[in-house]
Amino acid sequence: xxxxxGVTARLRRGKFQLERRYVFFSRQQFDRSAVxxxxxxxxxxxxxxxxxxxxxxxxxxxxSLRGTGNFIIIASSLVVIACLTGRGYWKRxxxxxxxxxxxxxxxxxxxxxxxxxxxxxxxxxxxxxxKLAQRLGRHFIVGYSSFDEVARLAEKGLISGVYVGKGNxxxxxPAAIKAEIAALQERRRRAGLPPLIVxxxxxxxxxxxxxxxLTKLPPLASLAELSPEARVxxxxxxxxxxxxxxxxxxxxxxxxPVLDLKPKARRNRFDFNTMTSERxxxxxxxxxxxxxxxxxxxxxxxxxxxxxKHFPGLGRVRRDTHIVSADLDTxxxxxxxxxxxxxxxxxxxxxxxLMIGHVSLTAVDPSRPASHSKAVIDGIIRKKWxxxxxxxxxxxxxxxxxxxxxxxAVVEALNAGADLLLVAFDSExxxxxxxxxxxxxxxxxxxxxxxxDSDARLEKNFxxxxxxxxxxAWPTAE
Length: 478
Fold this sequence. Notes:
Elements: E1 2-12, E2 15-25, H1 68-86, H2 89-92, H3 95-126, H4 130-137, E3 140-143, H5 147-155, E4 161-164, H6 166-169, H7 174-190, E5 197-200, E6 202-204, E7 207-208, H8 228-249, E8 253-254, H9 276-279, H10 285-301, E9 305-311, E10 327-328, H11 332-337, H12 341-348, E11 353-356, E12 360-361, H13 374-384, E13 391-393, H14 399-402, H15 406-416, E14 421-423, H16 429-442, H17 448-461
Parallel strand pairs: 3-4, 3-14, 4-5, 5-8, 8-9, 9-11, 10-12, 11-13
Antiparallel strand pairs: 1-2, 6-7
Helix pairs in contact: 1-3, 3-16, 4-16, 5-7, 8-10, 10-12, 13-15, 15-16
């Protein structure tokens, strides 16, 4: 069992007492990785978790505490302090009263400290020397909530692409979205940089993040019971429809289709994010391969690249990697014969990218998620499968990796051969993540040969969107 320890303070009969409240969660649903606090966006040095929302406000799980939430917490803390001191508790309760007031004072102070630390990290990233910024920036795709903020990253070459999500299209007309994307591309052009990769999550069904305003199509799973000819024809039509609509906005990459096999077990009622049972096409690898291949052809015919996901597969996984770590314990031979067949078929007959998830493939590398495992990325996908396309990580803001040492994950992902690192849900995490990469580069902890190979793949697969690699971009390993 895992526990969150909350510490509350109160006065009882003039005496100060501390209570520890233990809230238990099933180990199947919660582990220590979900409660790690990223104080000040800096985990390049070891730090301890803290139950205080103020201290943890920079954590992606507490994104709602930023902005207005910051002001409300600070203001309420100051009001409580004023009441405690104004009514004489400070004096009457002696040491206990002073300690209680101090605890309340720590809330706004810790939030201000976290804000200052974030701003320091942000400023450091924005001041990254141009050569290093563009060397590393080509490996990042970032979500955004502020046009001005992401435009600045794009102009400096700190990113190679943007992720357009629900928040970017809500209550907006297609023309406005198209104009915003075009404005970002114009900023890149004026800066002398290649166009941005513009990505979205538009699978159909429950994951139709750009609907509205785009058409919300049924999930590809709705085609699984059709005859082989009918489902292939319909899937290609779905791909063409989504591709045309995405391309009309200026979107060039779709994070679809899902190739995870439909789970045999009932849906985990605590899984509010992955929802594999609703998103997966079928439990039959042949059906998944047929429908997905046709869908990808439709996307590509409309000028939009596809991304198959979430290797090594989530169909057998019961835990939600958006929140906690998860293991895939199935032998490799069994996965090759079933779960991985759709991936190999689609990748062999298309230009699709491969999104790698944060589940640990225990038969190959039990110590880390697949998204930053060299044994999985380089050993299986590159060497065994001979896949030479682009590999992108699932969102690095997800709890399965963000709750651990994110710097280790970033460095290992790049050194393993991941080409693009996605930072989507909480764009402010980008600064902390990029700082990890830039620190590693300055300390010669990045594999120069792996990065040169990755640059070549990006330039081949995104010839208009990849930054040409100078001959001296990454030093030759001695």
